[in-house]
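Hello Y.,

Per our agreement to keep a running log of every chain we model this quarter, I'm adding this entry. I've kept the format consistent with earlier entries: sequence first, then predicted structure.
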Amino acid sequence: MRVALVRELGGPEVLVPAELPDPVAGPGEVVIDVSHVDTLFVETQIRSGAFSAYFPVRPPYVPGGGVAGTVHTAGEGVDAGWAGRRVIASVGFTGGYAEQAVTSVDHLVPVPDGLGLREAAALAHDGVTAAALMEATAPGPGERVLLLGASGGMGTLLVQLMHAAGAHVVAVARGERKTALVRELGADDVIDGSDAEWVERARTALAAAGGPADVVLDGVGGAMGAAAFALTADGGRFSAHGAPTGGFAPVDPQEAARRGITLHGIGDVQLTDADYVRLAAHTLAEAAAGRLRPVIGHVYPLSQAADAHTAIEERGLLGKVLLSAQKEG
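Predicted structure for the entry above:
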């Protein structure tokens, strides 16, 4: 089968097309004919070697943890009725950038009729994580939410979910195209994060809505996330779940405790298999019903996985970047 293989740690150029033997389903497993593959910023960080301390992945390896496709074969002990079903699945942090992927049957989530596999792949990770963040931070009607990284794959979903929950959404994105998209998706106020005065603009927007942010969702990290923490209301909730800047927001837990702010981190969205399946099924159903729209910026063929990683790192595209594992030509 065709795969995209990281031959060594380094830049996007180390991600190259390769051929590997077709996988075989073991007991309790299935093999999926992959249609589309989710991509994440953290996968570029793992490939570069920047996150080696957190992810013990060593080259050569096939990246990718979220796939959408059709069950090809079922292993021993698996209900034969899974064969031929359209599914999404989490396969861990390796093995997804491939024409076929093997995973436990416990990781499978059926894709509802009326929802394409491409759209389902865009929800395989970001949709589930967004739903988990909604449960963790529980924004209520009229609460003020400050959202950083609002134009990315997960950010665009969070804008829609927070708006549907009745929250007042102040969203931060960079550039005219991204801010226009975020406003279209339902943000009440949109702040250009490339503006040197973005913090004061966000503070003003929040004040006009009634005060500091009840909930801050930081999908960016670093200094930007730290600045957003200062805009959190006493007694509010702050989630530092993103680190595309290279590190999570450096928040002082003692200050958070003094101000009664509940801190959430990446550990709060590390889900059990059962929670993944539950949240994924809910998210796919919302998308199939038209209440949630994944924004897909570009789909690259599997052979151009290096280009996909370049696009992710350059942050020029709106929403999700996906890979297509379908035959080319």
